[in-house]
Design goal:
about 300 residues, NAD, binds 2-oxoglutaric acid, D-isomer_DH_CS, D-isomer_DH_NAD-bd, 2 domains, oxidoreductase activity, acting on the CH-OH group of donors, NAD or NADP as acceptor, D-isomer_DH_CS1, Rossmann fold, 5-stranded parallel beta sheet, alpha/beta, 7-stranded parallel beta sheet, binds 1,4-dihydronicotinamide adenine dinucleotide
Length: about 300
């Protein structure tokens, strides 16, 4: 029986890859090197990616033996799930692996934005001591608006409620909310929140959800945090809001294009930008890597199972 071939095209923890190597022929390819990826795919029974590999129709059509694409992580916006379905390729992800890490980063970004931490740190690093220039505001007693109340949104709510923030939520699909969390429409949430944080997927329906109109509704003293996906926020409109005093600050883990190149947002004093670090903890990567491997092996099991005996 042939050993299944698994392409790993983004970084996975070594012990998760070792577990896979024990039973599969594992081939590492850089998912950003399109040519190498396309060349490797015809032999593949499975493909494991994070967010660095774009699994579009061309990729799927090259992978004529492919049974499963595993996304070690949550967002499936880099996988053409409709084409996969049409070609009979199963797509799996690891929905619970990194929620806590993303929520913890979100709390860090909220604090960094309202307390101007990155600007203050840069200033001290440059030998300055400008205490009066970096006054911020407390979170206690302020309103937190969470857009998208799934796994990450709920973890963020628990953590920032402990800062004594009042929590509002907008999620048209969430059935249960919990105590001390109040549901509201998007415009109402934007109008009253001191911090708005996004925790919804990027889909055709949510692309550009936070545009010029929505930013204009927000308080000029408010901060916007995005650890969900670039493209949910209109970056040109955000730049305008931040440079005209319509919005106090923004903290961004994700960008419409990654890396964001020379995005003018990066040069703004009132922007805290980090390079898509939400899931970049040892714990989240280990959970996501092992869960992705477990799910791939479950999908490939029929390939390596002994042939049924006939009587
Ligand atoms: N920065 C990072 O490294 C990471 C980012 N993410 C992003 O965070 C997103 C959320 O992750 P999870 O909470 O695990 O997903 P989830 O699926 O548990 O929750 C998403 C929530 O968004 C809601 N939603 C969908 N459309 C909406 C809309 N138009 N308005 C308001 N709410 C809407 C859904 O009802 C759901 O409750 C992921 O889709 C992914 O893009 C996830 C993990 C790591
Ligand atoms: O896997 C990654 O590279 C980032 C994590 C992420 O964005 C996700 O899990 O949706």
């Amino acid at each position: 029986m042939p050993t299944p071939i698994v392409i790993v095209s983004d970084a996975l923890p070594g012990d998760a890859v070792a577990a896979l190597e024990a039973v599969c022929d594992v081939r590492r390819v850089d998912g950003r090197d399109r040519e190498a990826l396309l060349a490797a795919l015809p032999a593949a029974d499975a493909l494991i990616v994070r967010s660095g590999t774009r699994v579009d129709a061309e990729v799927l059509e090259h992978a004529t033996r492919l049974r499963v694409v595993a996304r070690a992580g949550v967002g499936l916006d880099n996988v053409d799930t409709a084409t996969a379905r049409a070609l009979g390729v199963t797509v799996v992800n690891t929905p619970d692996a990194n929620s806590v890490s993303v929520a913890e980063l979100t709390v860090g970004l909220v604090v960094a934005s309202v307390r101007r931490l990155t600007r203050a740190a840069r200033s001290v690093g440059a030998g300055e001591w400008r205490r009066a220039d970096f006054a911020g505001s407390e979170l206690s007693g302020r309103v937190l608006g969470i857009v998208g109340f799934g796994r990450v949104g709920r973890q963020v709510a628990r953590r920032l409620a402990a800062f004594d923030m009042r929590v509002l939520v907008h999620d048209p699909y969430a059935d249960t909310l919990g105590d001390d969390v109040h549901a509201t429409g998007l415009d109402d949430l934007l109008a009253v929140s001191d911090v708005v944080t996004l925790h919804l997927p990027r889909t055709p329906a949510t692309a550009g959800l936070i545009g010029a109109r929505e930013l204009a509704i927000m308080k000029p003293t408010a901060h916007l945090v995005n650890t969900a996906r670039g493209g949910i926020v209109d970056e040109d409109a955000l730049h305008r809001a931040l440079t005209t005093g319509a919005l106090a600050g923004a903290a961004l883990d994700v960008f419409a294009t990654e890396p964001p190149g020379a995005s003018p947002l990066l040069a703004l004093e009132n922007v805290v930008a980090v390079p898509h670090l939400g899931a970049s903890t040892a714990e989240a990567q280990s959970r996501a890597g092992h869960e992705a491997v477990r799910r791939v092996l479950a999908e490939l099991a029929p390939l390596s199972a002994p042939a049924p005996t006939t009587v």
